[in-house]
Amino acid sequence: MIVEYIQSALLLIAAFLVIVSAVGLLSLSKDMKNVVYGRIHIVGIFDIACVIAMIGLGQYLLAAIYFIIAPFTAHAIANAFYKGEDVVNNAELGEVEEESDDSNPFIVHKSKVQELENENSEKLKTDDRFTISTLDIVEED
After folding, report:
1. Residues ≥6 apart with Cβ < 8 Å to 116
2. How many CB atoms lie under 10 A from the CB of residue 17?
3. What is the DSSP string of 9-20?
């Protein structure tokens, strides 16, 4: 009898956490600076609600596994976003590396291409089948 009351209380607490986190997730502005990290934080509340609900339903082993794995997955998602797309916080993503690989004919350093353009080569003048040009990319604020 007491166990049923405890289980009911745990399920009510989990339901309350789900409602609060859902309202927080829906009211989160898309124009925020670090919206992905905010969403991951709010989803962490969902995770805790699920752990509480699993404990309330008597699934202790599943709750323990989920309680251990959930922070690792949240960290992996945040780390992947930081290393892959977070230009605002990760200054290394804004830098462009100019690599050259002599074994690959398709990767040529920018300075070599500019030298070929500036060079008055007879071969480039007579061969009109292709041209070498560079593309200047300008970011407008």
Report:
1. 124, 132
2. 19
3. HHHHHHHHHHHH
Q: How far is CA 76 from the centre of its chain?
A: 9
14 exposed, middle or buried (CB, 10 Å; 0-12, 13-18, 19+)?
buried
Q: What is the DSSP letter of 93?
A: G
Q: How far apart are CA 108 and CA 113, in angstroms?
A: 7
Contact indicator for 82, 90 with CB cutoff of 8 Å: yes
Helix axis angle, 60-84 to 35-56, nearest 10°: 170
Which tens digit of pLDDT belongs to each residue from 103-120? 776 666 667 766 766 766
What confidence tens digit (pLDDT) does each residue in 10-68 have? 899 999 989 998 898 888 887 778 888 888 888 888 899 989 999 998 999 999 999 99
User: In 10 A of CB 67, how many CB atoms?
Assistant: 16
The residues, ordered by sequence, that sit 6+ positions from 109 with a Cβ below 8 Å of its Cβ are 98, 99, 100
Entry field: residues in the chain: 141
Give dist(CA 74, CA 88) in Å, integer.
20
